[in-house]
Amino acid sequence: MPYQPNGDRANGRMYPNAVKASERSGALPFTRSTMKPKLSKIAAFPNWKQKFSKPIPVQSSAPLFSLQHARDFIGALPETEQASASWRTAERLVRQAAEHGDDLAVARVAVMRALHRR
Length: 118
Fold this sequence. Notes:
The chain is mainly alpha-helical. Helices cover 36% and strands 8% of the residues. It folds into 2 domains: 1-36, no CATH class; 51-116, no CATH class. It has a two-stranded antiparallel sheet with strand order 1-2. Helix 3 packs antiparallel against helix 4 (104-116).
């Protein structure tokens, strides 16, 4: 039943009954599910096994091939070094790449910058 300006007064409702999508001209039906707020894109399980496009060379240890290697390397640093702004940024971007699927290249560059300032 298409929209009627007077509403459905027989049932005491001011709004029309739901209209099937096939009855409307290309529009989606208006339901409560279309009014739900968008949730943030957080993975149920972070994907730490994602590999960088190129490994990150580290002088003191083996190269970092994946987000998991970068996370473990940052976690093994002394706390005073981890507290620096460059390492906090690198840790945040590596975590966001694993949890939200953010760009790996940005996380890779952040780790390389933090290594350069080391």
